[in-house]
Amino acid sequence: MSKKKVSKKEEIVNVGVRKLAAGYIFLLIAFSLFFVCLHSFSLYAFDIELNYSIFILPILFFLIDVILKEVGYSYGIAALVLSAAFIFVAYMYLDILFNIEFNMIKYIGVVLAYSVSQFLNLSIYYYMLDNYRTPYFFVVVNFIFSILVYNMIYMLFSLGLVFSDGFWSSYLIVVALQTLISMICGILLRLIKQGVEG
Question: What is the CATH number of the domain that holds 60?
């Protein structure tokens, strides 16, 4: 087999893309860790306890879409896998650090909810980039759909797979707050030009 000769200019571009991807992945991991840290802090709204981390989740979806749009699908998948692994380790580490009871169901629930919702977000957005001009409405609907999936899986695992009296009210309030943040993220995502794979 003969290897395709890569020009000096292409090599420089490839190194630049890898550095850009590494920077974005690092940013996603940093926000993922921030997401985990804020999970311990709560606020009360409408007689419902809400985690501060709900405000970071749409930003995580936004960042993975930026990675996809700027440097490509394969880097988006790599970012998803690395950030999910860091979330899993961070939850376990914080529980050990603060002497909280080890709960594998909680860890699996968080990582499963994050991974499934991010993969759906990434795949749907990739399809939209490939086949449409990604209208703002569809971008926001993609964010909302991913948020619905994340919150449903996470709440089912965090409540022990049992629906409580306040399940739907807390679920709808969380989704409404995250939808507002998603609208802002959707506007910002429209401003970013498609990069390498575009």
Answer: 1.10.1760
Q: What is the pLDDT at residue 120?
A: 94
Question: What sign does the CA torsion over 46, 48, 51, 55 have?
Answer: negative
CA neighbours within 13 Å on the CB side: how many for 117?
A: 25
In 3D space, the residue among 118, 122, 108 whose CA is nearest the CA of residue 154 turns out to be: 108
User: 15-69: per-residue pLDDT in tens?
Assistant: 777 777 788 788 888 888 888 888 777 788 777 777 788 888 899 899 888 888 8
pLDDT score of 145: 93
In a domain, 80, yes or no: yes
**Domain assignment of residue 68, yes or no:** yes
Domain residues for 62?
Answer: 11-191
- Is residue 120 assigned to a domain? yes
Query: What is the number of domains present in the chain?
Result: 1
Residue 137: count of CB within 10 angstroms of its CB? 9
| 8 A C-beta contact, residue 124 and residue 145 | yes
The DSSP 8-state label assigned to residue 102 in this structure reads P
167 domain-assigned: yes
Q: Are 154 and 94 in contact (CB under 8 A)?
A: no
Q: How far apart are CA 150 and CA 157, in angstroms?
A: 11
Q: Which of 139, 12, 137, 131 is nearest to 66 (CA)?
A: 139
pLDDT in tens, 81-124: 888 888 888 888 888 887 777 778 888 888 899 999 999 999 99
